[in-house]
Design brief:
With 105 residues, the chain is mostly helical. It has a domain at 26-93: High-Potential Iron-Sulfur Protein, Chain A (Irregular), CATH 4.10.490.10. It has 2 helices and 2 strands, in the order H-H-E-E. It has helices spanning 2-30, 39-43, and strands spanning 81-83, 91-93. It has a two-stranded antiparallel ribbon. The radius of gyration is 19 Å and the shape is globular. The relative contact order is 0.20. The chain binds iron/sulfur cluster.
């Protein structure tokens, strides 16, 4: 009986975990994409395509900078659009870049 009770408890935890994960993904997908016309995006020199930014124009000299490898990006690796701590409520392009880019620790 104890094993059955334990199984039911673990199943409930697993089901709750799946619901939380599904909710998190839905939120990221529902975010509007950050526009390059956004005043804050302009101030931070945000672009959807990091390859258009000259390395010499960056304050941080680290190579291969994009939102996908920035310490401030959130969400799931591999997603084309992801939340960012600098632009709350908006999704940034994984291939994008802005002047706040910081390396992951
Ligand atoms: Fe991209 Fe990082 Fe700038 Fe956010 S802070 S827009 S993830 S480079």
């Amino acid at each position: 009986m104890i094993a059955r009770r334990k199984f039911i408890q673990l199943s409930a935890v697993a089901a709750a975990s799946c619901l939380v994960q599904a909710g998190r993904e839905a939120q990221a997908q529902d975010l509007p994409q950050l526009s390059t016309d956004d005043p804050m995006a302009n101030a931070m020199k945000y672009t959807h395509d990091s390859s258009t930014v000259a390395a010499a124009a960056r304050a941080n000299p680290a190579p291969d900078q994009s939102c996908a490898n920035c310490a401030l990006v959130q969400g799931n690796d591999g997603d084309a659009w992801r939340p960012c701590q600098i632009f709350p409520g908006k999704a940034v392009a994984a291939a994008g870049w802005c002047s706040v880019w910081a390396p992951k620790a």
